[in-house]
Amino acid sequence: LMTQSPATLSVSPGERATLSCRASQSVTSNLAWYQQKPGQAPRLLIYGASTRASDVPVRFSGSGSGTEFTLTISSLQSEDFAVYYCQQYNNWPTFGQGTRLEIK
Amino acid sequence: EVHLVESGGALGQPGGSLRLSCAASGFAFSNYDMGWVRRAPGKGLEWLAVMSRSGGNTYYADSMRGRITVSRDNSKSTLFLEVNGLRAEDTAIYHCARLPSSLDYGDYSLYFDDWGQGTSVTVSS
Lengths: 104, 125
Hints:
Chain A has 104 residues and is an all-beta fold. Chain A is built from no helices and 11 strands. In chain A, the strands form 2 sheets. In chain A, strands 2, 4, 5, 6, 9, 10 and 11 form a 7-stranded mixed beta sheet that branches. Chain A is globular, with a radius of gyration of 13 Å. The relative contact order of chain A is 0.34. The mean pLDDT of chain A is 96. Chain B is mainly β. In chain B, strands 2, 4, 5, 6, 9, 10 and 11 form a 7-stranded mixed beta sheet that branches. The model of chain B has no long low-confidence stretch (mean pLDDT 95). In chain B, a hairpin with a 5-residue loop joins strand 4 (33-39) and strand 5 (45-51). At the A-B interface, strand 5 and strand 10 of A face strand 5 and strand 10 of B.
């Protein structure tokens, strides 16, 4: 089971956002993060817990291993307000319920 | 540029069947494992199935095994998902997605590096 917190995060543009994802058992570093905007396909941001996918801005960073993971967006841009999902692939894929990042 | 376009979503009857398609372009489809993921209204993403590049290895989520069948036609760069015994809880947006894994060779890196926008399935009488 993947648990994301908070469910909703309100942050002002230019500020830092920190999103959390907890696994019920160790997934080592087999953890991915996705961004999804309304009506759009999900977009891979991070895999291997900390490796940025192609064309992902450097303001996105992932950290953690085992059961605790964090996605940090260092300076929020307007296009970053979206829903973010974590997904483990240490076993058959399971996703967290998502964190909605909204403009404060 | 990778392009995945799902189709076939519709209003389905409880107990009925639907067949979804995913047309791929912009990459060598036959060189990639592919999968299906759905998102029900008000819920998060749910993995449904993955199929190896050859089509020789297919894995289904326990919650869906027995009711779904994934297939692919590499000559047409198309992935398919058949859902049988439709239930109200199958109402969702269904996405196809590409994986960087190599299931035929034991690489189970089952994350999704490109996705389609999805096709909508509604199950209601």
